[in-house]
What we know:
Elements: H1 3-20, H2 28-36, E1 57-60, E2 63-65, H3 68-78, E3 85-89, H4 95-103, E4 106-111, H5 114-126, E5 132-136, E6 149-158, H6 163-166, E7 169-181, E8 184-193, E9 196-204
Parallel strand pairs: 3-4, 3-6, 4-5, 6-7
Antiparallel strand pairs: 1-2, 7-8, 8-9
Helix pairs in contact: 1-2, 1-3, 2-4
Amino acid sequence: MSKSAFRSTTQRETMVATQVRPSNVRDPRVVKAMASIPREAFVPRAYKGVAYVDEDIEVKPGRYLMEPRVLAKILAAAEIGPKDFVLEIGPATGYSTAILANLADAVVALEEDQELAETASATLEKLEITNAVVINGPYREGVARQAPFQIIFINGAVDEVPGALLRQLDNGGRLVCVVREAGVGHVRIFQNSNGHFGSRRLFDADVPLLPGFETKQPFVF
Length: 221
């Protein structure tokens, strides 16, 4: 093992030991996924040395990789099964997509930014992750032609969850995301019960807003 590979492995182990496990993430599959995916492969060259810090990392103006602790808690709360079909909204460079691919049967990641979509696809291919695909398209429309999904994960905070995404959930399926309410982010899980959508609030989380999910301000004359 090269020095850089050894350092990366050590950093991932430290991240799991000091960020993930202390955050009450008990799902062994999530812990294993977080310990196996090289986060440094998904960040700009200037940030590779701090890829495992416990904070959001900007990969393009206004776009971030969610901090590892919060990402792990959200994915553990989603209870993703090995046979689940997952839709991810806003994968950025694809780090969360790689984690999801370790947990689910297959992942479709929808990215509006074409450059980020291409970067994510190339990195996933380089890491030989074959059960995830990144496509370029508008977030709010989802991927209706591939629906239904057992899990939908919105990778960033939103002011509201579009109905078009909820309607792409399978019966019993779950959408998990951070919803901003009065300026405070809360992780919520929405569930489809025979076409009726209920939600429950889990815990607070401060993550960057995913562009395009802001509440539209009324026009003022």
